[in-house]
Design brief:
Layout: H1 6-13, H2 28-38, E1 50-55, H3 58-64, H4 73-76, E2 79-86, H5 93-102, H6 111-122, H7 126-150, E3 154-158, H8 163-169, E4 176-185, H9 200-203
Helix pairs in contact: 2-7
This protein binds flavin mononucleotide (FMN).
Protein backbone atom coordinates (compact mmCIF):
# COMPACT_ATOMS: atom_id res chain seq x y z
CA UNK A 1 0.00 0.00 0.00
CA UNK A 2 1.41 3.42 -0.90
CA UNK A 3 -0.18 6.69 0.11
CA UNK A 4 0.14 9.85 -1.93
CA UNK A 5 -0.88 13.43 -1.39
CA UNK A 6 0.97 16.73 -1.95
CA UNK A 7 2.60 16.72 1.51
CA UNK A 8 3.88 13.18 1.10
CA UNK A 9 5.08 13.97 -2.44
CA UNK A 10 7.02 16.90 -0.97
CA UNK A 11 8.63 14.64 1.64
CA UNK A 12 9.43 11.89 -0.85
CA UNK A 13 10.96 14.18 -3.46
CA UNK A 14 13.38 16.06 -1.19
CA UNK A 15 17.09 15.49 -1.50
CA UNK A 16 20.13 17.22 -0.06
CA UNK A 17 21.27 19.83 -2.59
CA UNK A 18 24.91 20.29 -3.49
CA UNK A 19 24.59 22.85 -6.27
CA UNK A 20 22.84 26.19 -5.84
CA UNK A 21 22.29 29.09 -8.19
CA UNK A 22 24.60 31.76 -6.70
CA UNK A 23 22.63 34.51 -8.47
CA UNK A 24 19.38 33.66 -6.68
CA UNK A 25 18.59 35.34 -3.38
CA UNK A 26 15.77 35.29 -0.85
CA UNK A 27 14.30 38.47 0.61
CA UNK A 28 14.50 39.04 4.35
CA UNK A 29 10.71 38.58 4.42
CA UNK A 30 11.04 35.16 2.74
CA UNK A 31 13.75 34.23 5.27
CA UNK A 32 11.50 35.37 8.14
CA UNK A 33 8.66 33.28 6.75
CA UNK A 34 10.83 30.14 6.61
CA UNK A 35 11.81 30.69 10.24
CA UNK A 36 8.21 31.41 11.26
CA UNK A 37 7.22 28.05 9.75
CA UNK A 38 10.21 26.36 11.43
CA UNK A 39 9.11 27.65 14.81
CA UNK A 40 5.77 25.85 14.54
CA UNK A 41 7.68 22.57 15.05
CA UNK A 42 7.10 20.88 18.40
CA UNK A 43 9.45 21.43 21.35
CA UNK A 44 9.57 19.74 24.73
CA UNK A 45 7.35 21.61 27.24
CA UNK A 46 6.94 24.27 24.54
CA UNK A 47 10.44 25.47 25.47
CA UNK A 48 11.13 26.87 21.98
CA UNK A 49 14.80 26.71 22.92
CA UNK A 50 16.16 27.76 19.54
CA UNK A 51 17.56 30.67 17.61
CA UNK A 52 18.23 31.03 13.90
CA UNK A 53 21.10 33.06 12.44
CA UNK A 54 20.46 33.74 8.75
CA UNK A 55 23.82 34.08 7.02
CA UNK A 56 22.89 35.85 3.79
CA UNK A 57 25.26 38.74 3.08
CA UNK A 58 28.55 38.23 1.18
CA UNK A 59 30.43 39.37 4.30
CA UNK A 60 28.70 36.91 6.63
CA UNK A 61 28.99 34.07 4.10
CA UNK A 62 32.73 34.78 3.77
CA UNK A 63 33.00 34.56 7.57
CA UNK A 64 31.20 31.22 7.70
CA UNK A 65 32.58 29.32 4.71
CA UNK A 66 36.18 28.83 5.93
CA UNK A 67 34.96 27.48 9.28
CA UNK A 68 32.48 25.16 7.55
CA UNK A 69 34.85 22.90 5.66
CA UNK A 70 34.86 25.45 2.85
CA UNK A 71 31.58 23.99 1.58
CA UNK A 72 30.46 25.85 -1.58
CA UNK A 73 26.78 25.76 -0.56
CA UNK A 74 27.53 28.42 2.04
CA UNK A 75 28.44 31.05 -0.52
CA UNK A 76 26.23 29.73 -3.35
CA UNK A 77 22.92 29.19 -1.53
CA UNK A 78 20.74 32.22 -0.88
CA UNK A 79 20.97 31.69 2.86
CA UNK A 80 22.61 29.35 5.34
CA UNK A 81 20.96 29.21 8.73
CA UNK A 82 23.01 28.50 11.80
CA UNK A 83 20.44 26.47 13.69
CA UNK A 84 21.13 27.27 17.33
CA UNK A 85 19.77 25.12 20.15
CA UNK A 86 19.63 26.49 23.69
CA UNK A 87 20.28 24.22 26.67
CA UNK A 88 16.88 23.29 28.12
CA UNK A 89 16.09 25.69 30.99
CA UNK A 90 12.84 25.16 32.90
CA UNK A 91 12.88 28.72 34.33
CA UNK A 92 11.74 30.11 30.95
CA UNK A 93 8.58 28.00 30.95
CA UNK A 94 6.22 30.54 32.63
CA UNK A 95 7.16 33.15 30.01
CA UNK A 96 6.88 30.63 27.15
CA UNK A 97 3.43 29.49 28.32
CA UNK A 98 2.05 32.97 29.09
CA UNK A 99 0.74 33.51 25.53
CA UNK A 100 -1.19 30.20 25.71
CA UNK A 101 -2.70 31.22 29.04
CA UNK A 102 -3.62 34.66 27.65
CA UNK A 103 -5.19 33.03 24.60
CA UNK A 104 -7.31 30.81 26.84
CA UNK A 105 -5.67 27.60 25.56
CA UNK A 106 -4.07 26.63 28.86
CA UNK A 107 -5.42 27.35 32.36
CA UNK A 108 -2.91 29.39 34.42
CA UNK A 109 -2.88 26.77 37.17
CA UNK A 110 -1.32 24.26 34.76
CA UNK A 111 1.88 26.28 34.32
CA UNK A 112 3.64 24.82 37.40
CA UNK A 113 2.50 21.37 36.27
CA UNK A 114 4.80 21.84 33.28
CA UNK A 115 7.57 23.81 34.93
CA UNK A 116 8.21 21.45 37.87
CA UNK A 117 8.55 18.20 35.88
CA UNK A 118 10.76 20.04 33.37
CA UNK A 119 12.99 21.25 36.22
CA UNK A 120 13.23 17.70 37.57
CA UNK A 121 13.90 16.27 34.12
CA UNK A 122 16.62 18.66 33.02
CA UNK A 123 18.19 20.96 35.53
CA UNK A 124 20.53 18.51 37.28
CA UNK A 125 21.37 16.70 34.03
CA UNK A 126 23.68 18.57 31.63
CA UNK A 127 23.49 15.82 29.00
CA UNK A 128 19.69 15.97 28.91
CA UNK A 129 19.76 19.76 28.64
CA UNK A 130 22.08 19.49 25.64
CA UNK A 131 20.17 16.60 24.08
CA UNK A 132 17.04 18.78 24.16
CA UNK A 133 18.89 21.64 22.46
CA UNK A 134 19.86 19.27 19.64
CA UNK A 135 16.35 17.79 19.37
CA UNK A 136 14.73 21.21 19.28
CA UNK A 137 17.07 22.57 16.63
CA UNK A 138 16.65 19.44 14.53
CA UNK A 139 12.85 19.60 14.57
CA UNK A 140 12.95 23.26 13.58
CA UNK A 141 15.40 22.58 10.77
CA UNK A 142 13.30 19.66 9.48
CA UNK A 143 10.20 21.85 9.24
CA UNK A 144 12.21 24.44 7.29
CA UNK A 145 13.63 21.77 4.95
CA UNK A 146 10.17 20.58 3.93
CA UNK A 147 8.73 24.09 3.77
CA UNK A 148 11.60 24.98 1.43
CA UNK A 149 10.93 21.93 -0.71
CA UNK A 150 7.24 22.83 -0.98
CA UNK A 151 8.31 26.25 -2.29
CA UNK A 152 10.58 24.64 -4.92
CA UNK A 153 13.77 25.49 -3.01
CA UNK A 154 16.67 23.14 -2.29
CA UNK A 155 18.18 22.59 1.13
CA UNK A 156 21.27 21.06 2.71
CA UNK A 157 21.62 20.19 6.38
CA UNK A 158 25.31 20.30 7.29
CA UNK A 159 27.36 19.08 10.21
CA UNK A 160 30.62 19.79 8.39
CA UNK A 161 31.69 22.84 10.40
CA UNK A 162 33.94 23.76 13.31
CA UNK A 163 31.46 24.19 16.15
CA UNK A 164 33.80 26.21 18.38
CA UNK A 165 34.77 28.55 15.56
CA UNK A 166 31.11 29.10 14.59
CA UNK A 167 30.27 29.72 18.23
CA UNK A 168 32.94 32.43 18.40
CA UNK A 169 32.50 34.00 14.97
CA UNK A 170 28.72 34.44 15.32
CA UNK A 171 28.54 35.35 19.00
CA UNK A 172 26.63 32.37 20.39
CA UNK A 173 25.94 32.48 24.12
CA UNK A 174 27.41 30.07 26.65
CA UNK A 175 24.11 28.15 26.85
CA UNK A 176 23.85 27.91 23.05
CA UNK A 177 24.91 25.06 20.75
CA UNK A 178 25.27 25.29 16.97
CA UNK A 179 23.11 22.26 16.09
CA UNK A 180 23.62 22.29 12.33
CA UNK A 181 23.96 24.56 9.35
CA UNK A 182 21.07 24.58 6.91
CA UNK A 183 21.55 26.05 3.45
CA UNK A 184 18.42 26.95 1.50
CA UNK A 185 18.12 28.40 -1.99
CA UNK A 186 17.35 27.92 -5.64
CA UNK A 187 19.07 24.82 -6.99
CA UNK A 188 21.04 24.61 -10.19
CA UNK A 189 21.12 21.45 -12.33
CA UNK A 190 23.28 18.51 -11.31
CA UNK A 191 21.92 17.61 -7.89
CA UNK A 192 21.39 13.95 -7.16
CA UNK A 193 17.89 12.64 -6.60
CA UNK A 194 17.10 11.28 -3.17
CA UNK A 195 19.22 8.22 -2.45
CA UNK A 196 17.64 4.79 -1.98
CA UNK A 197 16.88 3.97 1.63
CA UNK A 198 17.45 0.88 3.73
CA UNK A 199 14.46 -1.44 3.44
CA UNK A 200 11.67 -0.79 5.94
CA UNK A 201 11.97 -4.41 7.05
CA UNK A 202 15.52 -3.63 8.25
CA UNK A 203 14.58 -0.58 10.28
CA UNK A 204 11.08 -1.31 11.59
CA UNK A 205 10.20 -3.52 14.54
CA UNK A 206 6.49 -4.11 14.80
CA UNK A 207 5.94 -5.05 18.43
C1 LIG B 1 22.92 15.86 10.34
C2 LIG B 1 23.31 15.91 8.88
C3 LIG B 1 24.53 16.43 8.53
C4 LIG B 1 24.90 16.54 7.18
N1 LIG B 1 26.07 17.17 6.87
C5 LIG B 1 26.35 17.41 5.57
C6 LIG B 1 27.45 18.23 5.21
O1 LIG B 1 28.19 18.75 6.06
N2 LIG B 1 27.69 18.43 3.89
C7 LIG B 1 26.89 17.90 2.92
O2 LIG B 1 27.15 18.13 1.72
N3 LIG B 1 25.82 17.15 3.22
C8 LIG B 1 25.51 16.90 4.52
N4 LIG B 1 24.40 16.17 4.86
C9 LIG B 1 23.54 15.61 3.80
C10 LIG B 1 23.59 14.07 3.80
O3 LIG B 1 24.79 13.60 3.21
C11 LIG B 1 22.37 13.55 3.04
O4 LIG B 1 21.19 14.00 3.68
C12 LIG B 1 22.36 12.02 2.94
O5 LIG B 1 23.43 11.57 2.14
C13 LIG B 1 21.04 11.50 2.36
O6 LIG B 1 20.79 12.08 1.10
P1 LIG B 1 19.43 12.82 0.77
O7 LIG B 1 19.24 13.87 1.84
O8 LIG B 1 19.64 13.45 -0.57
O9 LIG B 1 18.36 11.82 0.77
C14 LIG B 1 24.03 16.06 6.18
C15 LIG B 1 22.79 15.52 6.57
C16 LIG B 1 22.42 15.46 7.89
C17 LIG B 1 21.06 14.93 8.26
Amino acid sequence: MTITNPVIDCILSRSAAKYYDPAASLSDDQIRELVRIGTTAPTSFHLQNWRFIAVRTPEAKARLRPIAWNQPAITDAAVTFIIVGQLADSSVIPARLAPLVEAGIMPAKMVPEWEIPARDLYMDYPQRRRDEAIRTGTFGAAAMIYAARSLGLGSTPMIGFDAEAVHRAFGLGKEEVPVMLLSIGTERPGNWPQKPRRPVADVLDLV
